[in-house]
């Protein structure tokens, strides 16, 4: 019997990369989602400056998660990509549009409205594509003999469209709470007003998804019914995060809303894992079946364990250096 389960370690590492990407890149995608609704160009400048030092570093976690998935679970990679080609393409296209618009917006004057639209559109498309991918994973993928056998548009269902909408609203909530923490004045006051609306919308979406998910697969329904007392803390933590977020916004707290929103995302992520474990491709392929050879996992693991502290270190340092408020004339202070 192995003393160390390398596959379990890799599940943890890929899961860490996914949740770090969702949380960190989620708030700057959320800033872009809110862009068309902001009251004026000064508010857009404020929130853009707030994410300027960190947005590209946040996407490091997407690269790490994708590379880790390919190295440790190649079967999962080879099944998911054919099933979700269009969703992945939309995700990458949205990120590209957003990145280009981010760089050019500050340098333009006459064409700034076009770059604003590109930034908002890229953010919305990237967030919606991620929601579609998550929804397709939750509802299940048709596999026979470790090969995807479904159609090109099997991912396109009412459930995946609703998860796309839910994630767009969730990222908008993260972006709003990030803006509350990083801005001041009229921009911050506008974010305080819009955040309660987003809290209500996200709460409704979470309720619908929570009720809809067990209906997508009999295994999920069976798990929640049989293990309900043990899984009860997960929805309770989500409800607590929502209540804390609502209270913090009403009390005009600056930092607590953002961390409460992160807690909400963590509880939702834990709920998905609890519903689908141990399946890498629900409802057919487990993580053990999708894993590469232990020797390959160990070899790549040594490199990841060397790089991971460096990534965590420079991410932490960046956020520490730019921990202050954004000022209209001087940027961070």
Q: In CATH terms, what is the architecture?
A: Up-down Bundle
Oligomeric status: single chain
Contiguous uncertain segments of 5+ residues: none
For CATH, the homologous superfamily is named as Formate dehydrogenase/DMSO reductase domain
Number of structural domains: 1
Top-tier CATH class:
Mainly Alpha
Structural class per helix/strand content? mainly alpha
Helix fraction by DSSP (H/I, runs of at least 4): over 70%
Q: In CATH terms, what is the fold-level topology?
A: Formate dehydrogenase/DMSO reductase fold
* Rg from Cα: 20 Å
**Count of beta strands:** 6
Number of helical regions: 15
Instruction: Please state roughly what percent of the residues sit in beta strands, choosing from under 5%, 5-15%, 15-25%, 25-35%, 35-45% or over 45%.
Output: under 5%
Mean pLDDT: 86
Largest sheet: 2 strands, antiparallel
Could you explain the architecture of this structure?
The protein is mainly α. The chain has one domain (7-320): Up-down Bundle (Formate dehydrogenase/DMSO reductase fold). Helix content is 77%, strand content 4%. The chain contains 15 helices and six strands. The strands form three sheets. The chain has a two-stranded antiparallel sheet with strand order 1-2. Strands 3-4 form a two-stranded antiparallel ribbon. It has a two-stranded antiparallel sheet with strand order 5-6.
């Amino acid at each position: 019997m192995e003393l160390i389960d390398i596959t379990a370690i890799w599940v943890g590492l890929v899961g860490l990369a996914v949740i770090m990407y969702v949380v960190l890149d989620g708030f700057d995608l959320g800033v872009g989602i809110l862009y068309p609704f902001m009251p004026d160009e000064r508010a857009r400048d404020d929130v853009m400056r707030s994410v300027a030092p960190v947005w590209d570093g946040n996407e490091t976690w997407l690269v790490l998660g994708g590379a880790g998935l390919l190295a440790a679970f190649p079967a999962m990679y080879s099944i998911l990509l054919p099933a979700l080609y269009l969703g992945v393409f939309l995700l990458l296209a949205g990120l590209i549009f957003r990145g280009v618009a981010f760089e050019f917006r500050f340098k333009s004057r006459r064409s700034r409205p076009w770059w604003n639209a590109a930034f908002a559109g890229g953010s919305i498309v990237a967030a919606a594509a991620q929601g579609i991918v998550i929804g397709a994973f939750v509802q299940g993928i048709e596999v026979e003999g470790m090969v995807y056998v479904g159609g090109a548009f099997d991912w396109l269902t009412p459930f995946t469209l609703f998860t796309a909408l839910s994630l767009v609203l969730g990222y908008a909530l993260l972006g709003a709470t990030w803006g509350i923490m990083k801005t001041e004045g009229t921009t911050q006051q506008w974010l305080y007003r819009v955040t309660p609306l987003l809290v209500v919308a996200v709460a409704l979406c979470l309720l619908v998804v929570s009720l809809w998910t067990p209906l997508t697969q009999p295994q999920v329904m069976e798990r929640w019914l049989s293990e309900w007392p043990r899984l009860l803390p997960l929805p309770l933590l989500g409800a607590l995060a929502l209540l804390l977020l609502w209270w913090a916004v009403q009390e005009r707290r600056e930092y607590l809303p953002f961390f409460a929103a992160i807690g909400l995302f963590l509880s939702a992520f834990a709920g998905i894992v609890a519903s689908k474990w141990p399946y890498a491709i629900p409802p057919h392929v487990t993580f053990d079946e999708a894993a590469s050879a232990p020797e390959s996992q160990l070899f790549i693991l040594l490199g990841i364990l060397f790089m991971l502290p460096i990534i965590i270190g420079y991410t932490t340092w960046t956020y520490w250096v730019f921990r202050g408020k954004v000022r209209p004339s001087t940027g961070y202070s």
